[in-house]
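User: Hi! Is it possible to get a structure for several chains at once, not just one? Here's what I have:
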Amino acid sequence: MGLPTVQICSMKQVAVTVGSPRIVAGRSVLHPTGDPSLNADEERSLRRRIVEDALRALTSTGDGHAA
Amino acid sequence: MRLELRSARVERAAFGSKTHIADNLLQIDRDELRDLLSADSRLRDIEIELANPGDDCRIIDIFDIFEPRSKLDGKPNFPGLIDAPGRVGDGATAVARGAAVLVINANDDRFNTVVDMRGPAATLSPYASTANVCIRARPAEGVDRSKYYLALKLLGARAAVYIGDAAARSENPAGEIFDLARPSNHDGGQLPRVAYIYMLASQQVPTEPDEPILYGDNVRHLVPTVLHPNEILDGAVIAPYWNFGAETFTVQNHPMVLELYRRHGVDVDFAGVIAIIAAETEAARSRTALMAANLARYTLSADAVVITKYGGGIPESAVMETYDACEDVGMKGAIAIWAHGGDGRIEGTLTFMSPRADAVVSCGISDDPVEMEPMARVIGRETIGPLIMEREDDARPSGGALTLRYQHIAGGINQLGGGFLSSEEY
Amino acid sequence: MASSRGLFFSLTPKSRIRMGHRLAAMGRSLDGSDRDARMESIKPVGPLRPLRVVHYLNQFFGQLGGEDAAGAPPQIKAGPVGPGRPLASRLGGDFEIVATAICGDNTVADDPEAAISRLLELIRPYSPDMLIAGPSFTAGRYGQGCGELCVAVSRELGIPVLTAMNEENSAVAQFRDRVLILRTGPSAAHMTAALDGVAALAKRLASGDQRLIDRPADAGCFPRGLKRTVVHSHNGARRTVDMILDKIAGRPFKTEVSVPTFERVAPAHIGGPIREAIVALVTDGGLIAKGNPERMPNGFTDRMTEVSIAGHDRLDGDFVEVHHGGYDTQIVNADANRLAPIDVLRDLEREGGIGKLHETIFSTAGLGMSLSNARRLGLEIGRRLKDGGVQAVVLTST
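Assistant: Yes, the chains can be modeled jointly so their relative placement is included. Here is the combined structure:
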C-alpha cells in the first residue's frame, strides 16, 4: 500500500498477531488517547505524549515497537 | 482428600406428594420445594416446572444449571455460597445422576441460554438428556441485578441440595472414588506429570463484589492459586454470573479434571490444578502468566500443562501469555479454546494467538448457526432475544422456529473441554 | 436453484462455514436455499460430447510478448495457445480447449473490474463447460488475474473453474478460499509437471469429486484456509490430554487450530521529515458525525465513514459522537479526543510538528469485522488518503 502508518492501541497482542509493524501503547481499550482519572491539563499532556510517540514511530524503520 | 460420589439414577422427573427417587423416577413435592426457596426475601413469584427428555419443550432464559448433590456426614454444601467455607472434596456426596436444576432468569440477559428437549437442537445440549427441574423467580421490589443474581445462585444451589438429599435417601447408589493417592497401577515418577491451569473467570466483565465463584469469593484479583481437583468436583467452585460456556453443572462434572483423573496412574500423573483469572490489565495478565507457570513447574513439578479459558476474546491473550510462560520454563503446553467463526477463514479463529501455540484443541465454533424447530411448550418468557452475537434487533416468539448460534445452547460450547463439537481447518 | 450448474465456488461468507454432521444431514441451509446451490457439492459435468474448456493465459504465455506487452487488452483466440497445446493433449479426447482468453498482467492489475468484465464478454459466446487459468507459478499479477477471472466465471457462468500456482504467489492467500488452486513448482521450468497436475485435476473436477471441496489439500491443491464445525467422538478434554501426551512424547500430532500466518506488512517509509508531512487520523473506534446521518452500524459492518474536521481545533460533541458496540463508549463520548486526538494534532500542526492535519477522519466500528472486510476497507481508505495527498497515518484502535 505504501502509506506509513502507526497504530495506537492497548491490545498489543492483537496488533502483533496481525503483523502491524508500528505499534504504540494506547492508554486503555476504553480511551486510547485519554484518561478520565486525570485532570484536563494532565490528560492533555498524556495525549500529547502518546501522539508524539506515535509520530516518532512513524519515522522509525518499523521493525520495533515503540513504548 | 478422598471423595466418594454416590449416585442415584434419575431418568424422569414428576411432581408427587413426597420428594424421593425410586425406579429412576424423581418425584418432587412442589409445594415443599417452593416454600423452601421462597424463604429468600430477595425473590418473589417462584415457579417450578419440569421438562423431561423428549418433551416438546424449549427452556429459555437459563441463567445457570446445577447438578443435584448433597454432602453426607454433615460436611458443607457449596461452601461460601450456602454454607460457610469449609472443607469439601473429602468424604461422601450423594448425587441425583440424570437430573438437573435449571435456574431461569427473569432478566433479559444477552447471555441467557436455551435447551430444546427434542428435535435437531436437542443433540447439541447435554441438558436435553437430563430430567430438568426448572425454577423461575423474579427479583423482589428494589433488588438490583447484583443482589438478584446472587439470590439466583443460592436458589439453584438450595434446590440442588434439596434434590441431592433425595438421592442421599435412596438405596443402592452407584459409587465413584476420586483419590489422587490411590494405588492402582501407579508408576510413580515414570508417568508424565500434567498440571491443569483452570481459568475460573474473566475480568473483562468485572465480577460483582459478592459474586460467589471460589468458596464464595469473587476472584476479582485472584492470584494464581493451587487447588485440589476434588475441591472443584465437590462444590467449591461456582460458574460466574457471566454465563458463557460453563454452567455450574459442568464445573461439578469438570471435564478436564475428570479426564485427568480417568488417566491418573494410567498414562498421566495428575499433578494438580492451578486456578487463575483473566485480568483486565496487561500487567496483571503478565503477573498471572508468570506465577501460574512457576506454580506448575516448581511447586507441582509438572512436565506439562493443559489450559482452558473462560470468557470472550481478551482472555485469549491471558491464555497465550500463560502458555508462553509455561513453555519458557521448560514445560509443554496444550490449550482447549473455542473458535470464532467470523467469515470462515482461519485467520479470524482467535483474537490472540501465540506463534508458539502449536497444540490447540477447538471447543467448537461459537457463532456457527443452529436451526431450531418450533416447540409446543416454552419454559421462560414469551419472547427471546436478542442474544449475544445476534444481528437481530428484535425479540422473537420463544416457541417458534429460530436460528441461534452454538453458544446460545446450554452446553453447546463448553469452555472446559466437555463438548464434542470442534472445528477443523481445510 | 442452481443445481443444474455444476461445480462452482461462489460463496457468501455464511456458506463457507459448514455445519456439523448432524445438522448437515438435515439438508438445511442458512438462507433456506437448496444446499447444493452453495459450494458444498460438486455435480459431474459433461455428457456425451467433449467438455468445452476455455483456457486463460497472460500476455507472455499467450505469446503476445514479454513485459512490453503487459498492457495488452483482453482478447480471445480460438483453440489452444502456447502451453494450451500440451495441456490439450494431456486432457485427451473427452475435453476440447475451444478458446484461449489472454490479457496483459498490468491491464488486469490496474483495473480488474473492467478487464474481467471484458474477458467475460469474450468468453461467453464459447459456451464453456470449464475454465482453466494459468499456471501462473510465482507471477503475482498473473496469479491475481487468474484468481479474479476464476471467481467471476464461477459466479457469472456457473461452471467449474480451476487455476494453478506456486505457494509463493501472493494470489494464493487471496483466492484459495474461493477457487481451487493446484500447487505447482516455482517457475515455467516446472511447466510439464504443472500441466500433468492441471489435466488430472480437471478430470477429477469434471467427474464431480466432492473431496476436492472437502479436502483440497489431499488433491495437491492449497488448503482453503477455512474452518468448519465437526463433531468428534471424544470430548475436548480427552483430545487435549491426548495431544499433550503426544507432544511430551515427541509423537506427531495435529493441532485443531493452527497459527495463522498473516502477510507481514512491509512498513512503508515517510519520504521526508514528519514536520513537513500531511498526516491523517483513522480510527476503528466508531467515531461518527453527530446524529449519525449515514446510519453507520455499531459493529459487524463493512462500511466506513469520513468525518470532516475542517475548521475545528478539536473534536467535541457538537459535531461528533462515538457509536461502537464492542466497548463502553461513555468515556470517549464525553471527550472524543480521547479516541481521535485531534486537539493535540492541531497543536502540533500549529507549532510545526507536523506539516498539515488532513481534513477528514476515516472511521469504522471494528467490532466483529471480518478480516476480508477489514482488508478491503483498509485498501480503500489507503487509496483515498493517497489520492488526497496524505503521507502518513495515525490509526487509533480500541
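The domain at 3-219 of chain C is CATH 3.40.50.2300 (Rossmann fold). Chain C has a mean pLDDT of 84.

User: Great, thank you!
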